[in-house]
Amino acid sequence: MLVLGIETSCDETSAALVDDAGGALRVRAQRIGSQIEAHRPYGGVVPELATRQHLARLDPMVGALLEEAGTGLEAVEGIAVTRGPGLASSLLIGLGYAKGLALALGRPWIGVNHLQGHLISPFLAAGEAPVFPHLALIVSGGHTLLLRADGLDEVEVLGTTRDDAAGEAFDKVAKLLGLDYPGGPEIEKRARGGNPAAVDFPRSMMDSGGLDFSFSGLKTAVRVFREKHPAFPVEDVCASFQQAVVDVLAAKARRAVREAGVRTLALSGGVACNGALRAALETAAGKEGWRFLCADRVLSTDNAAMIAAAGLLRLRAGRRSAWDEDVAPNFREF
Ligand code: KG4
Ligand code: ZN
Fold first, then answer.
1. 222 and 82, same structural domain?
2. Cβ < 6 Å from ligand 1: which residues?
3. pTM of the model as a whole
4. How confident is the model at residue 182 (pLDDT cuts 50, 70, 90)?
5. What is the number of domains present in the chain?
6. Which ligand is located closest to the Cα atom of residue 306?
7. Which DSSP string corresponds to 274-319?
């Protein structure tokens, strides 16, 4: 089955073709149009700007995608599109486009939970079918989630953030340090030249709150430290901040694996690009005898291939979305 995936939940416009011709899921082609340059002057995503960019870019992108894959629209057997969570106005562009195309082609379409896409991306990258049960750590600009997946649609939230998402913490700390947006890669770059033990920043809720997280206290601690020590090397502040985030994420993920008794942890979301986080989880997996899976940068950050893959598995099982289905900006169900 060949499925076209569309992702417009936030500030990346993406389209991808995924098939299961050889048995395993395979990305035939993918396009991702980053809007970072458009939003950079504002230090964050401006919804109206994102909507307009999606509208202008999506259709030419699908044309280029089909050309790259050497196929025509008639070969597309189903269309998968992100329904939520995300920015309503951005989601509407993708959903309207997908429905229109499905109607014109006479093909089924399916609305996909964006987080279902992240759940599948480490397995898609490994060319494997998802293993159940497994635990997933999804860390992005909008989410910090520890999930237990017992099946495609049997997903339980074990832990989430009580305030800022992990990526949001990176972005806000970068902003207060005068670094560029998005902050995660900027902080990681500087942290490489710094001492992670230079400042003992708080590890909030390390031993409390079950598997929940909190990052706003850490952000405030960095701000207060910076005000008191303006000449302190920014590399050391970045390395110490990053270490505090990694310590908490890794500690809770390890505890979740132990308590759930599962053997696989899959990491996804923009913060999954962070080398220190990957290394911490890889080391823990090696020591504790469970498997750690993580996609590459392209499949970890927002992309349409993971939406196409999540949609393909559901379409293949006979699932369809109705023509009156709406976007779901606060989509909580799995
Ligand atoms: O998944 P994503 O592309 O978009 C959503 O938020 O859904 O994630 C973007 C987030 C941003 O907050 C960005 O700062 C963070 O991921 N990020 C990183 C790194 N690369 C991206 N955070 C830490 N280290 C990185 N290398
Ligand atoms: Zn995402």
1. no
2. 10, 140-142, 167, 170-171, 182-185, 188, 269-271, 273-274, 301-302
3. 0.95
4. confident
5. 2
6. 2
7. -HHHHHHHHHHHHHHT-EEEE--HHHHSS-HHHHHHHHHHHHHTT-
- Are 158 and 277 contained in the same domain? yes
Atom of ligand 1 nearest to the CA of 166: 12
The proportion of the chain whose per-residue pLDDT surpasses 90, expressed as a percent, equals 92
Q: Which residue is listed with tokens 């309503």?
A: 88
CATH number, domain of 303, equals: 3.30.420.40
Sign for the pseudo-dihedral over CA of 188, 196, 275, 84: negative
Residue 317 CA to ligand 1 center (angstroms) comes to: 32
CA 53/CA 170 separation, integer angstroms:
25
Quote the domain boundaries for residue 294.
132-298
pLDDT of residue 77: 98
Name the closest-CA residue to atom 2, ligand 1. 270
Measuring from atom 14 of ligand 1, which residue has the nearest CA?
184
pLDDT tens-digit series, residues 55-85: 999 999 999 999 999 999 999 999 999 999 9
Provide the mean pLDDT of the chain: 96
In a domain, 324, yes or no: no
Q: Which of the ligands is closest to the CA of residue 272?
A: 1
Question: Residue 333 pLDDT > 80, yes or no?
Answer: no
User: Which residues have their alpha-adjacent CB atom under 5 A from ion ligand 2?
Assistant: 140, 302
Task: Write out the two tokens for 27.
Answer: 């990305």
pLDDT in tens, 140-172: 999 999 999 999 999 999 999 999 999 999 999
> For a substitution probing ligand 1, which of 137, 181, 301, 303 has the most ligand atoms within 8 Å of its CB?
301
C-alpha span between 120 and 125 (Å, rounded): 9
